[in-house]
Design a protein that fits this description.
Largest sheet of chain B: 5 strands, mixed
Mean pLDDT of chain A: 91
Radius of gyration of chain B: 20 Å
Bound molecules: protoporphyrin IX containing FE, copper (II) ion
Helix content of chain A: over 70%
Mean pLDDT of chain B: 91
Structural class of chain A: mainly alpha
Number of helices of chain B: 2
Number of strands of chain B: 17
CATH topology of the largest domain in chain B: Immunoglobulin-like
Number of domains of chain B: 2
Helix content of chain B: under 10%
Low-confidence stretches of chain B: 6-17
Oligomer: heterodimer
Strand content of chain B: 35-45%
Distance between the termini of chain A: 10 Å
CATH superfamily of the largest domain in chain B: Carboxypeptidase-like, regulatory domain
Largest interface: A-B, 29 and 34 residues
Shape of chain B: globular
Order of helices and strands of chain B: HEHEEEEEEEEEEEEEEEE
Radius of gyration of chain A: 24 Å
CATH architecture of the largest domain in chain B: Sandwich
Low-confidence stretches of chain A: 1-12, 393-404
Strand order of the largest sheet of chain B: 5-11-10-7-8
Number of strands of chain A: 0
Structural class of chain B: mainly beta
Chain lengths: 404, 226
């Protein structure tokens, strides 16, 4: 814990790095929103190929073909590239000089791939040009940037982790299309939320506020039991998000179409006759896959999960309130968290009552991400800046503390 | 010797065809189904309908009691030849027909008569039938699909246009048909014998009858709107 705290406490030496991390976080939230639109509009498979789009390089895919579901799916691919690029820059920035070497070699590898592709008649010219161009650019840039000393080793490592995650996300997204597996979509959706948490944490840890908080004595300490409770609650929310993602990708969002009742009862029937009845009267232009008992159970698990996380967040808030003085920053954050989770529950209900209107369902995904991040950052803050610090704050900044 | 075999097979063939016939009948709809939903077409697709309202096709009727789009089949039958291929067209961002039937491994040919691109995405649920997702550009070349296992109402969809669906029922024999708009159906070349004749409608459910075919048979059904 001590090493964790002290290395996280490295101040950012550059306000632009923090701003850039913020920009990456914002772009990621946007990406999650567009990804939400893809699933909400049932457009996950609207572009059957990958990495190409209808045979075109994704950056030269004609705008005239961005019709119907393709608009969402293709925009998502482009936005994903933007976030991938931002994350690459962020990772290089955090790692400083040593990272120039990766950029150089990475550039050469991409260039080699491009040249190899050039020999294959099956690869289009724009793909070859794209690969060669990026390779040369990366190689060239590596001679000028990054040349600064690395930031704290821990931040550097988290930057690298972000880069790995964003690449995995891209591959998962592609595999979801080519392997035609909904399960991959579930994992892709959940990992996206975890990636978002990481980027937000990086933005927080590179901020001047973070550095200043470490430089001054902590105002109000969060007891260990409350910290653990915060962590558990955040993990519960992650579980709830995973349930939500599973539901979305099985198109089980309307497996129970009413609220507060469930198929007109407290707990819905799932016998064969009932299922047949549900499916017979279901007349939707989107003609979802037939309702199964599994879908109904999944949906009900998400409803029960909602009650559980609502209570858990409320309890977190009350316990923080008991432990901290009024106006404490954590307390303010926690009340925001409580408001967000109530809004989230409202949006979930609205999703059902609106017969799964795409915009509402997507808003439910975005606010879900915000709820998770708020919980994660609260947990992080309670465990670091507002936790019990092993050494005096000023010493914690020094190299001696970092060695512990 | 050769001519004897020839004669024998000819006799057998004639006898065989004499001992077969068509199963025909009519399917009626009882009750009034919920009104069809209007499809929210996008501008490119809406243009192809001259501003006419396009609706879902859950219950296709002739307005005089006949119910179309019912799959009619002899349960557990064997044999029966497949026709060449089943053709599904994409026209005005709709699949035509909405409901069809085919035999295992019989080509299902999907055409695109639209000035709009589609992706053709069959989503089978039975093991052994493969999910596929193929791009089809405007007036693109036809795409052929085959399925190895029997499956009722195998869904084809287009993810570009989230209202586009077509359902093909795949049988491991050749004795199946889809009722026309007036509810009439015809299964041809059914050998004499006793069968279970089943009618299935995607929303209206399933009804069945034991029938005996003797140079043909006739059976009418009623399906209740849900
Ligand atoms: C209060 C805590 C809740 C959280 C944190 C939460 C979170 C989420 C998330 C993140 C998703 C989307 C996952 C993804 O695609 O990546 C989702 C989906 C969904 N949630 Fe919730 N949810 C909550 C409450 C509710 C409630 C109370 C309801 C309804 C009674 C509800 C109904 C739904 C539905 C229907 C979907 C699927 C939407 C679709 O298929 O497009 N949620 N939830
Ligand atoms: Cu289409």
């Amino acid at each position: 814990m001590a090493a964790y705290q002290s290395s996280m406490s490295q101040p950012a030496d550059n306000p632009w790095l923090h701003r850039f991390a913020l920009l990456t976080a914002l772009a990621t939230l946007g990406l999650i929103g567009i990804g939400g639109l893809v699933t909400s509009h049932g457009a996950g498979m609207a572009v059957p190929d990958w990495p190409n789009s209808y045979g075109y390089n994704m950056f030269t895919f004609p705008v005239s073909m961005w019709i119907g579901g393709i608009l969402y799916e293709h925009s998502h691919r482009l936005a994903g590239s933007v976030v991938g690029f931002l994350t690459l820059v962020l990772a290089l920035w955090l790692n400083g000089r040593p990272a120039a070497k990766w950029l150089r070699w990475g550039g050469l590898v991409v260039l080699a791939l491009g040249l190899m592709a050039a020999t294959s008649p099956r690869v289009k010219l724009d793909n070859v040009l794209f690969l060669c161009g990026t390779g040369v650019a990366g190689f060239g840039i590596s001679f000028f940037w990054p040349h600064h000393a690395p930031l704290s080793p821990r931040l550097a490592r988290f930057g690298l982790l972000a880069l790995v995650l964003v690449v995995v996300q891209g591959l998962l997204g592609g595999l979801r299309v080519t392997a035609m597996k909904d399960q991959i979509g579930i994992f892709h959706g959940t990992l996206a939320q975890c990636f978002f948490v990481l980027i937000c944490a990086l933005a927080l840890c590179t901020s001047r506020w973070w550095a200043r908080a470490w430089a001054t004595p902590a105002s109000g300490i969060v007891p260990l039991s409350v910290r653990q409770f915060l962590l558990v609650t955040t993990l519960l929310i992650l579980g709830q998000l995973a349930l939500g993602a599973a539901m979305r990708h099985q198109h089980a969002g309307l497996a129970v179409p009413d609220f507060p009742m469930a198929h007109g009862r407290i707990w819905p029937a799932t016998d064969a006759a009932a299922l047949e009845r549900y499916n017979a009267v279901r007349l939707d232009t989107r003609d979802f896959k037939a309702i199964t008992a599994g879908q109904i159970h999944l949906h009900m698990a998400h409803r029960c999960g909602a009650v559980l996380v609502l209570c858990a967040v409320l309890a977190c808030f009350l316990r923080l309130k008991a432990a901290l003085t009024a106006g404490h920053p954590l307390l303010r954050l926690a009340s925001g968290w409580l408001a967000l989770i109530c809004a989230q529950a409202g949006l979930g209900i609205w999703t059902v009552l609106s017969n799964k209107a795409a915009d509402i369902a997507t808003l439910h995904v975005i606010v879900g991400a915000a709820v998770l991040v708020t919980g994660a950052l609260l947990t992080l803050l309670a465990g670091t800046v507002f936790g019990e610090r092993p050494v005096a704050p000023s010493a914690a900044m020094g190299p001696a503390a970092r060695a512990t | 010797m050769k001519s004897l075999i020839l004669t024998l097979t000819t006799v057998a063939f004639v006898a065989g065809s004499a001992a077969a016939g068509d199963v025909t009948g009519k399917i009626s709809l009882k009750g009034t189904p919920a009104p069809e939903k209007e499809i929210p077409m996008d501008p490119a697709c809406g243009k192809l309908h001259d501003g006419k309202k396009v609706t879902t096709r859950f219950y296709v009727t002739d307005g005089a009691g006949g119910l179309g789009d019912c799959v009619v089949y002899l349960e557990g039958a064997k044999g029966g030849a497949a026709t060449k291929e089943v053709v599904i067209d994409q026209k005005g961002c709709e699949y035509l027909p909405y409901i069809s039937s085919a035999q295992v491994n019989q080509p299902i040919r999907v055409l695109n008569s639209d000035p709009v691109l589609h992706n053709v995405h069959p989503t089978p649920t039975v093991d052994g039938n493969k999910e596929q997702n193929k791009a089809q550009l405007p007036k693109g070349a036809p795409l052929d699909f085959t399925f190895a296992k029997a499956e009722k109402f195998l869904r084809f969809k287009c993810d570009v246009h989230p209202w586009m669906f077509s359902y093909v029922s795949i049988f491991d024999h050749g004795f199946h048909a889809v009722s026309a708009k007036d509810g009439s159906y015809k299964i041809t070349g059914v050998p004499d014998g006793k069968y279970k004749l089943v009618v299935e409608h995607r929303k209206g459910g399933k009804v069945e009858k034991e029938i005996e075919v003797k140079g043909g048979a006739k059976a009418d059904f009623t399906i209740e709107a849900k």
